[in-house]
């Protein structure tokens, strides 16, 4: 073989190797564009039960508003919102999610009120390589010991509630606690997080009792709490359970007797349903309030026009999570799950809810939380004028770091 022929052979081999490398890289890269001509997002939550006002149809409407604001399309294909009622049952939620993924080609599921439901669907979504963004469920395990590469947690969590409501009450003298706890994953996690924070601050938990979801009669639970002598009765529940417990506590004269109620997960929707006369003075933590500033008011005005109600943090968070997902799809240039999940962590959250939020490696979106006190009827000057701001809790204080969360992906 001549020198020229040897050189040509080396050049040919180099070119062939380069072509192989390029082909391999292209094969391994995410496919561009939408895989099936549509990007489909599922809103799965409680639409008829104890949490129907907590998120419910309001969250579905918020998701549709986010799609409209994004332009209705991404990667030149339409964005579609589908929704279903999981009835607060993990088996029903898992069956819906499986059908959505296997038959209806849903790309991501969001909202997911109820922690047991959210944990079940997030586990299935890991198996199916699909993204979930949880707005309605609270347990910090979602981005802690049960985190997944495709699971994100958006609006709030039990740690943020513990830092906000729990911390404020301990610091103002509420150093003995008794818990009324919803008997499922959310209640257990919330009680555990608040207990840890209370004891770190020098307080003490003197007792606790568990009640079933959707309890109607809280009398026996409240009598135990009253008899404990605890300064704070922590309501580690949500939705109608919290509202019913507060109503029945008034009948027993618990607050008049000197004990305080801590509504550990209470939103604007429940305050509205309960009324200011019953809810006045309650301290609570939310990630959004409609009257915070012009941005918050602008969204709330549009939401009110569509639903007849002001949004709470679950509904505002659902809007934010849908919008961020669509921004990630656009930035990735594909709806491929791994590529989109990477972009979700890379992009800043820039909207009226997240306000410069960041997404940690464990999927936790970090943003400021707010400590509010419910106004008295005399203090309220207009419809839905329910809160006065006590403190802003910086995101890095409200939420655990990825390293401290216990997420196996970040250890």
Strand order of the largest sheet: 2-3-1-4-5-6
The CATH homologous superfamily of the largest domain corresponds to: Response regulator
Measured as a percent range, the helix fraction is 40-55%
> What average pLDDT do the residues reach?
92
Helix tally?
14
Name of the top-level CATH class of the largest domain: Alpha Beta
Distance between the termini: 57 Å
The gyration radius over C-alpha positions equals 24 Å
**CATH architecture verdict of the largest domain:** 3-Layer(aba) Sandwich
Oligomeric composition of the shown chains: single chain
The main β sheet shows up as:
6 strands, mixed
Low-confidence stretches: 1-28
Count of separate structural domains: 2
Task: Write the element-wise H/E pattern from the N-terminal end onward.
Answer: HEHEEHEHEEHEHEHEHEHHEHHHEEEEH
Beta fraction: 15-25%
Please report the total strand number as a whole number. Answer: 15
Q: Name the structural class.
A: alpha/beta
Q: Under CATH, the topology of the largest domain is which?
A: Rossmann fold
Pfam families: Peripla_BP_6
Signal peptide: 1-26
InterPro entries: BCAA_transport, Leu-bd, Peripla_BP_I
Family: Belongs to the leucine-binding protein family.
